[in-house]
Amino acid sequence: MTRYLSLYWLFLTQRLKALMEYRVNFIIGAASTIFLQASSILAIWVVMQKVPTLNGWNYDEILLVYGLITLAKSINHMFADNLWTLGRVYIRSGGFDRFLVRPIDPLFHLLADRFCQDGVGNFLVGVALVVKSSLALAIAWTPLKVLLLLVAVISGGFIFIALNLLTCTAAFWIVDSVPVTRLVFDNHLFAQYPLSIYPKAIGILLTWVVPYGLASFYPAAFLLDRELGWLAWLAPLAAALLLYLGYRFFQFGLRHYSGTGT
Amino acid sequence: MIRRLLREPGKYLAILGMVPKVFMAYQIWFWVSLVLGTIAMAILYFFWRAVYGGTQAIAGLTLNTTLTYILLAQVFRPLTDIDLIFDFGYNLREGGIIHQLLRPINFQGMYYAQSLGFLGMQMVLQIPIALVATFVFGLTWPTDLRVWAAFLVSALLGFTALFFFVYCVACLTFYTTEVWGLGVLFFGMSLFLSGGLVPLAMMPDWLRTVVLAIPFSQALAVPLNILTGITPLDQVHQIWLTQALWVLGLWLASNLIFRVAIRKVTVQGG
């Protein structure tokens, strides 16, 4: 474990050195995600000027939901973005074989190979939204709520990573796994808003099947002392289960991997 | 012998098996984008229903009008989808731009024709999305032919104005040579500025003024306002005129900028 941590540190510092060679690109990359988020947030702001609540959730409460999912997403974006490119960049070119001959876990190598700077923009947006909304809502930060916030963001990040891991493994058979990953990943967009605005079926999907809701709606409900907030404590369990499944599936895919011949 | 007989067909079966794999790679994106489009529409649909929860009308728009507007914005999204920035950047990097500049046809005209063709193709590919909007989310299509005619003219004018605007920005790549960030930044802004997320009527005055002053809205929000009846037909001529002025102004600007920027072209390879 400590070996992997120090290895990750080495990979990260090398990557940052490379990124710092092109400073302007680094900043534009990080800023680009901020602009993307600004579009949606501006839209919410305009609408919430016109109506007091969205299904009983006011402007700041919605920002809290939005901020929490953005924070969880940013963890995945910064540290596990390479899962997207497994097929396109590594398997198609044969570069993945390089990982197989090294004395470390190939999955670890894949993840450590590229820290993604664009995720920093999402992280900053998420922090800003959570701070802004919790100040406006005067959330009383009891130790339990602070703990839940940490648990929610970290397990939320791992839920994103685990679902991407499960779907990106398709690359071992079909090479380009991006469409499969997108199919699952895009469901997180539902969780940018309170799940109560959707029909029951979508709520169930986002809680029990692709549990992005555990990273946004339920922790927000807990922090605001609303009903169903206790479900937020399921997030670490869901994350652990999905990670276990994802890792096993990745190992299974790895055994079926035969390269593309390039 | 028997072994060989068994192995021989195996090889050919493998080749046979490759065909659906290659075919699937293209097919899969068709179906996946349909699902992604449906997810995007579902979120907007339920979001707006919740917004209207207890209200009859917001800024003079009923739930029905707003939903029609938002769903049509999803269907007609290709109107704001002009990939010129990436095209310019790619051709600069690969050096192809030299050959294009030497051809005995108008450089800008060539890109305009290409963008128009791309728009036509994109709209055909939007047909499944339109079907989902109609049969899943209950989009009601306008039936008045005069409204459609007015919309089409306005959409074409707005698209042309936006083309010249994007052309101006794409000329910046001659200076920066950085393309990816510029493109993403542009895309991020276009989402809101096109008016596809929120009808312009709901925006505070100052924001609407800003949005109308940037040509994204000319290509989507302005024509959609006509199609959904938010803008009455008797104002159409005035809108066409404004859009025509946009086209003229941005055409002049784009040619001016191009003339200055082209001196900066440094091909990086090719």
Summarize the structure.
Chain A has helices spanning 2-20, 23-50, 59-79, 82-91, 96-100, 106-112, 118-136, 143-168, 171-174, 178-185, 200-209, 217-223, 235-255. Chain A has 262 residues and is mainly α. Chain A is globular.
What descriptors fit this protein?
heterodimer, A: 262 residues, mainly alpha, 0% strand, globular, B: 270 residues, two-stranded antiparallel sheet, 13 helices, 2 strands, flat
Which regions of chain A contain 5 or more consecutive residues with pLDDT less than 50? none
Radius of gyration of chain A: 19 Å
Largest sheet report of chain A: none
Q: What is the chains' assembly state?
A: heterodimer
- First-residue to last-residue Cα separation of chain A: 33 Å
Number of helices of chain B: 13
Number of strands of chain A: 0
Approximate shape of chain B: flat
Q: Spans of chain B with pLDDT under 50 lasting ≥5 residues?
A: none
Mean pLDDT of chain A: 91
Whole-number radius of gyration of chain B? Answer: 23 Å
Determine the structural class of chain B based on helices, strands and strand pairing: mainly alpha
What is the approximate shape of chain A? globular
Helix content of chain B: over 70%
How many H/I helices of chain A? 13
